[in-house]
Amino acid sequence: xxxxxxxxxxxxxxxxxxxxxxxxxxxxxxxxxxxxxxxxxxxxxxxxxxxxxxxxxxxxxxxxxxxxxxxxxxxxxxxxxxxxxxxxxxxxxxxxxxxxxxxxxxxxxxxxxxxxxxxxxxxxxxxxxxxxxxxxxxxxxxxxxxxxxxxxxxxxxxxxxxxxxxxxxxxxxxxxxxxxxxxxxxxxxxxxxxxxxxxxxxxxxxxxxxxxxxxxxxxxxxxxxxxxxxxxxxxxxxxxxxxxxxxxxxxxxxxxxxxxxxxxxxxxxxxxxxxxxxxxxxxxxxxxxxxxxxxxxxxxxxxxxxxxxxx
Length: 311
Description:
The chain is of the alpha+beta class. It has a six-stranded mixed β-sheet with strand order 4-3-2-1-5-6. Strands 7, 8, 9 and 10 form a four-stranded antiparallel β-sheet that branches. Strands 12-11-13 form a three-stranded antiparallel β-sheet. The longest helix has 24 residues. The radius of gyration is 22 Å and the shape is elongated.
């Protein structure tokens, strides 16, 4: 917690922000190391974590201290409520928030914008997500170890799905094998909704597994990710059911050549936009405590962790 919080406080000072109000669980986990409910997918904004620059204190929205590290004592927990106005009032009552002039938020809905304007009428709202992206971009050695541990779980779970791939199995069965192995390895939350589906020629890959039965000779796209102690490990593979055909072996060879080119291009100083412009690259983004956006103008640095997807 100390390292991530220190980097965030430094970035807040550089951008002249007095308080951060965060709704994204990845940002809250990075700052606090708290283990709270984390769901794959998106949720509406709610102020689940507050950081005050003057005091260096992290405050969390929680009704229990279970999973909350001792660095965040019970006095810094504020309650949930079905009434958003009560949540906004609880945030305003945190020591240091009422005297803040600039508050960064990593997301906002019209309702909470109105509520913050009512309880904090003299505050300027700023982009807090930019603060968190900068603080999270370059990983410490300990964070890299955590990410590698999550990747090891994801690799093992996807390997189990590959082992289960045979004629007659359904797409949802492969997804079930992945998630069962993931849970056995200590991760109970997927990083995203995994894709396990037959590749139909000239059609986009479906994002949701179905009851479709996989036949001998089918190509199956498998993409899965896990969150282990808040850190993401994810990967994707396309695998043939049964013995690969000559065409499938040729496609695999061409993919390996493209992948080698892309990996060789991931060097310090290379701009993200140049990677995105590489032939057949579909997406490039950062990864750590979940998805991390990267601007095309950003240059790669030692310690950054990125995810690259090929078409």
